[in-house]
Amino acid sequence: MADPRFFTPQGPFDLATLAGFAAATLADDADPDKTVKDVATLDGAGPDDISFLDNLLYRDQFASSGAGACVVAPKFAALAPEGMSLLLSEAPYKAYALIARAFYPETRSETGIAAGAVVHDTAHVAADGFVAAGAVVGAGAEIGARSVVGVNAVIGEGVIIGEDTQIGACASLSHCRVGHRVIVHPGASIGQDGFGFAPDPEGHVKVPQLGRVVIEDDVEIGANATIDRGSGPDTVIGRGSKIDNLVQIGHNVQIGKGCFVVAQVGISGSTRIGDHVSLAGQAGLIGHLKIGDGARVGAQAGVARDVPAGATVAGSPAVPVIQWHRQTAALARLVKPKGSNR
Amino acid sequence: MADPRFFTPQGPFDLATLAGFAAATLADDADPDKTVKDVATLDGAGPDDISFLDNLLYRDQFASSGAGACVVAPKFAALAPEGMSLLLSEAPYKAYALIARAFYPETRSETGIAAGAVVHDTAHVAADGFVAAGAVVGAGAEIGARSVVGVNAVIGEGVIIGEDTQIGACASLSHCRVGHRVIVHPGASIGQDGFGFAPDPEGHVKVPQLGRVVIEDDVEIGANATIDRGSGPDTVIGRGSKIDNLVQIGHNVQIGKGCFVVAQVGISGSTRIGDHVSLAGQAGLIGHLKIGDGARVGAQAGVARDVPAGATVAGSPAVPVIQWHRQTAALARLVKPKGSNR
Amino acid sequence: MADPRFFTPQGPFDLATLAGFAAATLADDADPDKTVKDVATLDGAGPDDISFLDNLLYRDQFASSGAGACVVAPKFAALAPEGMSLLLSEAPYKAYALIARAFYPETRSETGIAAGAVVHDTAHVAADGFVAAGAVVGAGAEIGARSVVGVNAVIGEGVIIGEDTQIGACASLSHCRVGHRVIVHPGASIGQDGFGFAPDPEGHVKVPQLGRVVIEDDVEIGANATIDRGSGPDTVIGRGSKIDNLVQIGHNVQIGKGCFVVAQVGISGSTRIGDHVSLAGQAGLIGHLKIGDGARVGAQAGVARDVPAGATVAGSPAVPVIQWHRQTAALARLVKPKGSNR
User: Fold this and answer.
1) CB B289 within 8 A of CB B307
2) Per residue in A129-148, pLDDT tens?
3) Cβ contact (<8 Å) for A152 and B170?
4) Which of B108, C15, C213, C323 counts the most CB atoms within 10 A of its CB?
5) Residue B20 to residues B13, B23, B32, C285, Cα–Cα distance (Å)
6) Which residues pair with B26 in a beta bridge?
């Protein structure tokens, strides 16, 4: 299914092997030796493909899918069409992800410094690292083993990049330390001055920004996202957190481990976010807040107060999500014609 | 009026010729042979310039304008000052646009591969295409006739660019097919991985993103906008749709034909948008929605449900625009001092 | 405190000297000859460091800080721990900024055209200017004294850059005039076409954008921000205004002097903003508005009407901030259980 201009599948694999990759259970009537050649969407799959059902919005596509095999939660197995081989998993999307990664592993063959790249004499690029055409690596920078600096990307003086990390095209990094297995997508700007001024009617006074950005292992930073370096403390993105496109992270912000920060979120300076926090798209957080572990912030929420661990907030200004639903309903009732049952 | 450092007008043209370009009607008392040398704003125009009135906010500037000629709707012709020659059109802004394009046609003289560009041996650039300094074109990519790859832009492996298309400076494209007469503005990032993870407390699992971005003919993509490639299906921007700066478009999103997506809008994954839809600035749409043909979404709206064809919604969460106006008014009344008539 | 990979302090300085830099008053019991070696945060400072207290959120850190010296407002001096030398200032953050700039002045040693840069024959770069690797400077462009064009940045044809100005990595400028002491951060896109179309069901007609972007002295433009050039008039950013990351500024917008425009704000076309206006994060302004001098717009506000000078507005749609607080409270009361005193 994937366009061969861009993707080349590995495989084929038999169902038993795929079940092993996915930590899934083969349904009783499935043939463990059946061969699968590719992954596909429910409506695009054929008899040699494997697909998945995770979101019940797509149950009709599942019921009519021509996929030879499918990953599904046990409770929805009965919805499957005749003849489809099932891999059962309580986490079907994760199971699919593991299967898809077997068919399409990340591969990289180039190493060294491409023609047209500029690497400073005092920078160090690991022998099996790669600096692509047009990329510029500054004085004293370090690029770790198997890491890639993409086309026209910029690695500033002294920046440290760990191992197995990928820096996207046209991304710009300065004043930062980046861990292992990090992905920075194209156009991200990391490590520039934060928005620090002492306001003054005679002319705002710029405050030197003396901290860094620290990006821990397994983080992903979206395209055209911006992360300012700390003003003195560091700005920190914790291990395994995933930052989406066009997100703004202000100076001194600390994000914990395993968080999701969805597209176009803005986090103002010095706010601290715990572990496994989820910030939905376009949410905004003012500065100097504490957001507890496991908290969830709704899309477009405007957070102006601390959020306790485990809480879910929504609305602008943000309130507990139950209150937000009630407010929304109450507001709708205010304008309902009198006597209306709608 | 336009700064000659940056712009050189064609012409002059006589009024009859301009009326022809604009499909406008010359007013009875206008001299078809009168010469016009340039376009200008109402308040900056002189006797050799042509201007236009489209927004009644500017009626006073129209009434006092020194423009020698002006495009205006017939119903507002009576507001014109003495001595101004009028071109009458029911679509005065479009008429002005056509006249301005006659004075300032898009021109491009350079062809070939500039010094400092890097084009892979297996890429194909049309003989009359142009790859600017610092641009990098990857293996197997194709650049069509009269198309331009801007300074420091990046065209990834296998990407196909149609004819008469312009890719802006520092834009980055991968995994995509781009049509004819497309404009991609500077800094746009197109085709990177979507935000696809199977959440897992042990470490979120990245899901391979195996689709493409398909950009149809006559599309415009704004500066620093981001468009993720599909996860399996493609992300599609339909013919003639105009996407503004800093817009985020998630994986698998499908946008129909002739849409306007204004700055800083965010569209989450798998949402499908019909033809001639208008999304105003900073609106956000959650994933897996269907927005019908001709629908209109207000600025900063938060759309969490399907929107029927032709409907207009506003607010966060978004409701029909009439309800939103009523809710806004009801909320204001709640806090009005008792007995107040304000 | 600052990582020596990235920062090297000047100094040391004695307290009397620092008080002079900061226009602060030395407390009676402070030794003017005491030596200070660096700036530091309250909780990271030691006996050789100077810190500051500006936000009372951090009063406990102040009271327990090990900083040898600290800048503080006179009214909070009594909160200081034993043995801390105090510099008293009614503007402690500004005073700290001036001290930090003494320890960490902006320095730049390189001049000329770096290897790998491309400067057009007809461009002019001041002898003590610097064009970094991978940067491209177009025909007829002018780069003023002591100004820097960053790595992989793009300066379009005819662009004029003043003196002591810094253009960040991967930034792209066209059709603009930039003043003195301006900072453009990485990835900003300035001067591209505005979003100007005459809507037409047969295919929207692109309107030539014939104005420029004018950036006055002492302006700062954030990372990945976008500023469209005027459609005929210019887009103007007034002297000393500070624009944060990911801000969108539409065509013909005029921003006055000394404004703060915080991250992810969007300003639609032709809106005029006075002097010393503050727009908080993610606020959105529709087009053709007038925002008076000294006005303040709250975070996420949606401004659809003119705002008088000195007014503060909040909410979407934006209303006077007092009304917004009342509406927020009234809405919360609507859903409070009856008889509740919460």
Assistant:
1) yes
2) 999 999 999 999 999 999 99
3) yes
4) C213
5) 11, 5, 11, 37
6) B87
Query: pTM to 2 decimals?
Result: 0.96
Check B284 against A276: CB less than 8 A apart.
Answer: no
Distance between terminal CA atoms of chain B? 46
Instruction: Search chain B and give the residue with CA nearest A45.
Output: B232
B316 touches chain A (CB under 8 A): yes
ipTM over 0.85: yes
Alpha carbons C295 and C291: distance in angstroms, whole number = 7
User: Is B189 part of the contact surface with chain C (CB cutoff 8 Å)?
Assistant: no
Structure tokens given for C17? 């000297």
Judge whether C57 and C3 are in contact, CB under 8 Å: no
CA-derived radius of gyration, chain B: 24
- Please name the chains neighbouring C, where neighbouring means 3+ C-beta pairs under 8 angstroms: A, B
Give the residue-averaged pLDDT of B305-313: 98
> Closest Cα of chain C to B272: distance in Å?
20
Classify residue B247 as exposed, middle or buried by CB count within 10 Å of its CB (0-12, 13-18, 19+): buried
By the CB < 8 Å criterion, does B195 face chain C? no
Q: Which residues of A touch C246 (CB under 8 A)?
A: 224, 226, 246, 248, 266
Are residues A94 and B323, on separate chains, in Cβ contact within 8 Å?
Answer: no
**Nearest residue to A226 (alpha-carbon basis) of A190, A256, A260:** A190
In this complex, is the C-beta atom of A186 within 8 Å of any C-beta atom belonging to chain B? yes
**Percent of chain B beyond pLDDT 90?**
94
Chosen for mutation from A5, A51, A55, A316 (greatest number of chain B CBs closer than 10 Å) is A5
pLDDT digits (tens, 9 = 90+) for C157-213: 999 999 999 999 999 999 999 999 999 999 999 999 999 999 998 999 999 999 999
C-alpha C245/C-alpha C267 separation (Å) is 14
Give B65's contacts in chain C (Cβ within 8 Å): none
Q: Do A223 and B192 touch (CB under 8 A)?
A: yes
- pLDDT tens digits, residue range C33-78? 999 999 999 999 999 999 999 988 899 999 999 999 999 999 999 9
Contacts of C212 (CB under 8 A, 6+ apart): B3, B6, C175, C176, C177, C191, C229, C230, C234, C235
Q: Does C218 touch chain A (CB under 8 A)?
A: yes
Closest partner CB to A158 (pick from C5, C245, C262): C5
Each residue's pLDDT tens digit, A103-134: 999 887 799 999 999 999 999 999 999 999 99
Name residue, tokens 């994760």: A94
Q: With beta carbons under 8 A apart, name residues in chain C contacting A288.
A: 55, 57
What does residue B333 show for φ and ψ, rounded to 5 degrees?
A: -65, -35
pLDDT tens over chain A, length 342 residues: 689 999 999 999 999 999 999 999 999 999 999 999 999 999 999 999 999 999 888 999 999 999 999 999 999 999 999 999 999 999 999 999 999 999 999 887 799 999 999 999 999 999 999 999 999 999 999 999 999 999 999 999 999 999 999 999 999 999 999 999 999 999 999 999 999 999 998 999 999 999 999 999 999 999 999 999 999 999 999 999 999 999 999 999 999 999 999 999 999 999 999 999 999 999 999 999 999 999 999 999 999 999 999 999 999 999 999 999 999 999 999 997 655 544
Q: Which one-letter amino acid corresponds to residue A132?
A: A
**Which residue among A171, A284, A288 places its CB closest to the CB of C282?**
A284
Distance CA B259, CA B252 (A): 17
Residue with tokens 């990177």: B192
Amino acid in position A48:
D
Query: Is C100 an 8 Å CB contact of chain A?
Result: yes
Beta-carbon contacts below 8 Å between A and B: 187
Sorted by sequence, the CB contacts under 8 Å of residue A2 that are 6+ apart come out as A9, A38, A104, B210, B211, B232
Cα(A338)–Cα(A334) distance, rounded to whole angstroms? 9
